[in-house]
Amino acid sequence: MDYQTLKMNLYPLNDDELFYKRYYFAKQQEYSLSKFLSELDLKDVKQRNLIVPEIKDTIPPKFEDSFFFDIHDDKSIVVQKHNRYSPPITHSHTFFELIYVYDGTCEQYVEGKEFQLKSGDICIIPPNISHSITVFDESIIINVLIRKNTFHNVFFNFTRTESSLSSFFINNIYSKNGNDYIIYHTGSDDAIADSFIYMLLESTNKEIYYYEMISQTLMLTFGLLVRNYEKTIELPTFKKKSDVQRFALLQYIQENSASISLDSVADHFHYTPEYTSKLIKQTTGKTFTEIIQQLRIERAQVLLKDTNLTVSNISQKVGYDTTEHFIRVFKKNIHLTPTQYRHYGEQL
After folding, report:
1. pLDDT at 166
2. How does 308-341 read in b/e, with b if 16+ C-beta sit within 10 Å?
């Protein structure tokens, strides 16, 4: 399928949308709903992952990664068109979701707050946030799903830049209490619209290197958002001083994970080591040692996949004194040695 054909095919209803539209109108009267439900092929409904609120086992309690991703590979991004007329089920999920309004409008509910998104708007919902989306007309919404536990493997360098968007991702990856959403208003920005259509095209065709093309296009999109729309974002404001402390602390640890100690972090923020340790634990649910180890291993995964640096050089770059210690910690966390991990990535 080419670019223009995909754009034209966005508007006709697909099979799932036709199903949901019939369901939507059947719900208008009790008799027609009963008739619709009685005629359902339940096996087909479950195979297609269709959601029918009256059939409870079609609604997962939470949308886990496995509902959308192939957990047997390391592909972290799924791009798809949102099914119009699908029931607005309040739910949470284990991944980040980007909701882009390509054409039209939609109603969004996030943690009890209701607002309307219009053409050009991008709303990013982090994991574990209760929300729903309503589209009962011909509006076109494109969803991009990003796995939380592999986010840094793809976007590690982006999260090291200073911006509201990188802070949003960092705090929702490592903190137990990040922001509920972030919204960008891009209006009729053709570059943004083209990037989402292009990602959807690559996801549809799945030609060679399609995943790499999607991840690089998404990185470019993030760059455009930060460059052109940083001053007009909608973001829930900090509720209290401790939120500001927490976000600044995570940003600093992220940027300096290769060289810091608990004492140096405490000194930087003029806290005691005891208070710093407690604040990190309250924020991330992990000890200082655990969060530093996680950051170093994530950084090492990126360097193993994207550079030709030796394992010894990578060990030094991410903050380990000896290569042997690095290999031991890496294998404990990833269940592969660094060399095996690099070889595995080359085969994908």
Report:
1. 84
2. eeebeebbeebbbeebeebbebbeeebeeebeeb
